[in-house]
Design brief:
Pfam families: Aminotran_5. By secondary structure, the chain is α/β, with parallel strands linked by helices. Helix content is 42%, strand content 12%.
Length: 450
């Protein structure tokens, strides 16, 4: 089995030099939105192709014998990176899948509800609605408008848990919240929310989609009940790959993967109900939880096998996690200040300056729709944001998401090692022009182009 990692020995400056030397971005493209889909460097691409080639050279041999061994190596590397036991770590295609797994596996008792912040990711909100439609589980939405201080958010979260318990024979079964929310892209005091959940005997389900590779997580100290994070966003792993961490104390709650596959162990039902596993292996050294997610139907598992190469690149080329995170946070913050100056607005921040303790900065756009005498429906504001985002990339080859929050328009800037300040200045000037066009109503004339 050819499984040697690509040697990496050189270091490289961040910014344009990093981009030109190690990344595959189109020369004219200005990517100010690393947070949505990420990207990965050339050495990781080489590793990806090596694994795909191994799989195609001997498909059965790879899937049945080589892949499980290689996967265990990736799991061990990820567990070491997160500082958690290896038998608590598996891979799934994305954070959405992991959150689905938890919600589908939990057996909600009568009166138990799902608690979440109003800024949760859209697909997670739809999962909660699906659970309500199919199982009748109610949910409680904690309203959050940014900017908000961490103390206020935590207090509001605590109050919501208490309110659920008052006089209605209800309790919160599980609370879902982000490490860093998507839109707006701000750091959430998730560590404190986990502590509140622990004190209130509520399960904590942390959507860390933007966490791993962007901030220091400290999972072994925080100890959430369930945690997931996309490795293909900030860790430089190819799509699609996410880590799913479930401490031993909660693994009994996860009975099946999604879809249910060969790792599922049915409860005994007697003769005639035995099910043969065509991928049987020696499971003595692998936990039942890990086996549950080892082979989940047939898919390209090559991204799961790129963890070591991605971590090696971050360590040997970029200089390690602290250097990466510091650069991404600092350039994001400075880019936000410069963009706000160009736009004549400001950045989204709270009194303790905690919202921007990550690689995101949200900049307000100089845009108001309507004459102020009537309330414009939020769906129309959404249309403006969609139009501006589309025009920005189609006309200028710049991608920076525009969104509407707290009755204002914003753009979310992602700091990354392959960007320099000139990239953000270019984006801000293009957005300023688009704001003027939006004020004129041009977005109404071009609905068909969206």
């Amino acid at each position: 089995m050819a499984d040697a990692l690509t040697p990496i020995t050189s270091r490289c400056q961040f910014g344009r030099t990093m981009r030109d030397t190690h990344f595959m971005l189109a020369p004219t493209y200005t990517p100010l939105n690393h947070g949505s889909f990420g990207t990965y460097p050339k050495p990781v691409q080489k590793r990806l192709h090596e694994c795909q080639t191994l799989s195609e050279a001997r498909p059965d041999n790879f899937q049945r014998y080589d892949y499980p061994v290689m996967l265990d190596r990736s799991r061990a590397a990820m567990a070491s990176f997160l500082n958690v036991p290896v038998d608590e770590v598996v891979f799934v295609p994305n954070a959405t899948t992991a959150i689905n797994v938890v919600l589908e596996n939990l057996r909600f008792k009568k009166g138990e509800v799902i608690l979440h912040l109003s800024t949760l990711y859209g697909s997670v909100a739809k999962m909660i609605e699906y659970i309500h439609e199919t199982r009748g589980v109610e949910s409680v939405n904690v309203a959050v408008e940014y900017p908000i201080d961490d103390d206020v958010l935590v207090s509001r979260f605590q109050t919501a848990i208490n309110d659920v318990k008052v006089g209605k024979r209800r309790r919160v079964g599980v609370a879902i919240f982000d490490t860093i929310s998507s839109l707006p892209g701000v750091r959430v005091p998730w560590e404190r929310l986990v502590e509140v959940c622990r004190e209130e005997n509520v399960l904590s389900l942390v959507d860390g989609a933007h966490g791993v590779g962007q901030i220091d997580l400290g999972l072994s100290k925080v100890q959430p009940d369930f945690f997931t994070s996309n490795c293909h966003k900030w860790l430089y792993v190819p799509r699609a790959c996410a880590v799913f961490h479930v401490p031993r104390r909660n693994q009994h709650l996860i009975r099946t993967s999604l879809p249910t596959s060969h790792g599922f162990v049915p409860r005994p039902r007697g003769p005639g109900h035995e099910i043969m596993n065509p991928l049987m292996k020696d499971a003595s050294s692998t936990s039942p939880f890990a086996l549950l997610f080892e082979f989940v139907a047939t898919l390209d598992v090559s991204p799961y096998l790129c963890i070591e190469e991605a971590l090696r690149f971050r360590r040997e080329v970029c200089g390690g996690e602290e250097k990466i995170m510091r650069y991404c946070e600092e350039i994001s913050s400075e880019a936000g200040r410069q963009a706000a100056k160009i736009l004549g607005t400001g950045v989204m921040e709270n009194g303790t300056k905690m919202l921007t303790k990550c690689a995101f900065t949200n900049v307000r756009l100089p845009l108001e729709i309507g004459d102020g005498r009537e309330q414009i429906p939020e769906k129309d504001m959404y249309l403006v944001a969609v139009w501006m985002t589309a025009m920005l990339v189609r006309e200028s080859d710049i991608y920076s998401p525009v969104f509407f929050h707290a009755r204002r328009f914003w753009t979310r800037l992602s700091g990354q090692v392959y960007l320099d300040l000139g990239d953000f200045e270019k984006g801000a000037r293009a957005l300023k022009t688009l704001c003027e066009r939006a004020k004129s109503g041009e977005y109404l004339q071009q609905k068909a182009r969206l």
